[in-house]
Amino acid sequence: MLNVSKSVQAKTEVQLEPEVPKEPEVPKETAFAPFSGRIGPLVSRFGVLVALVLVCVLFTLMLPGRFATSGNVLAMLNSEAPIVILGLGITLTLRLGDLDVSFAATMNLSAIVIALLTVNHHVSVPLAIMAGILVGGFVGFVNAILVVGIGLNGFVATLGMMIALEGIADGLSGSATIVGVPGGLSTFATTVLGGIPTEVYYGWLLVIILWLIYERTVFGRYLLFVGGNRRASRLMGIRTSQVRWIAYIASGVMFGFAGAVLTGGLGSADPSLATQFLLPPLAGAFVGSTTLQPGRFNSVGTILGLYLLMVVASGLQLLGASGWVGDVFDGGALILAVGFARLTGRGLATTGL
């Protein structure tokens, strides 16, 4: 009897030990036939990178002396700098299975606050930038209260927040563009190092930081597990609410920083700019989720997706296409990215798309 009791106790202790989290496997029967076999993994992992190279070659041949020039490349990188930061920021909540659509409005409100502080109140540039970042962090905090604390639908709550922030930015600025920002703010974004402005380096640095967080830290793994199965994550002892709070606030901080980069790069702040930055970051993040690590939102894939959209938009513009063509392409790329993820069995189920 004593041996039996010890055996039962040992089995109970083994069962009580927390299980090591395992990444969900993709059912083989859901794989889309054209992308199965040996070619499928290569297409899934490197398709966006190959497409980016091919598109660059194509436009270089079609637009000799116009597309592949240092001036055009720098113009593309400069215009994409705030979008890259936004796209990287939204991957934090997308990995959680949440969809925050207030990112562009958060960036724009931060830009308005920074411009007002420096132009109207003569606040020093470092303090104004810090204030803009704090604005972004506060918006992320409020979003976390609504989504994590109260339990509202993430898309609906942040959509309402986006509309509210646009109204606040409009009211603070008096519906007018704020010009005359100090040179120090422009220097913060446009100082050239190695032929490339600092605003571009900020995005590249964030790619590396987020890659390290996603791939080399416990928090990065927690983001993935919480996004994959929130209930199972709680049972494994992961503080899912805490992880989500941190992700919302951290992404808000990144959006606030994007506002500083935007203001410094443009030398002004326009309250009507938010809507122009809504679709490209989302499209880039979803396109990026189909490459390198298919089915996961990742930093390297996101910047590749954004640069692919950037190159196509620039090439079409140089070919004489109307501005609306770029919007159509971005929207179509977003639809195709989500559809591709579904068809290959790596659907982004955690986002509900």
What percent of the residues sit in helical stretches (DSSP H or I)? over 70%
Structural class: mainly alpha
Major sheet: 2 strands, antiparallel
How many helices in DSSP terms? 14
Radius of gyration: 22 Å
Count of folded domains: 2
Placed side by side, the strands forming the largest sheet appear as 1-4
Give the tally of β-strands: 4
Distance between termini?
Answer: 56 Å
Share of β-strand residues? under 5%
* Order of H and E elements: HHHHHHEHEEHHHHEHHH
How would you describe what is shown here?
This protein is mainly alpha-helical and 353 residues long. It has two domains: 84-276, no CATH class; 278-348, no CATH class. The protein is built from 14 helices and four strands. The protein has helices at residues 2-16, 39-62, 70-94, 103-119, 125-149, 154-173, 183-190, 198-216, 218-228, 230-235, 240-266, 279-288, 299-318, 323-343, and strands at residues 178-179, 192-193, 196-197, 268-269. It has a two-stranded antiparallel sheet with strand order 1-4. A hairpin with a 2-residue loop joins strand 2 (192-193) and strand 3. The longest helix has 27 residues, at 240-266.
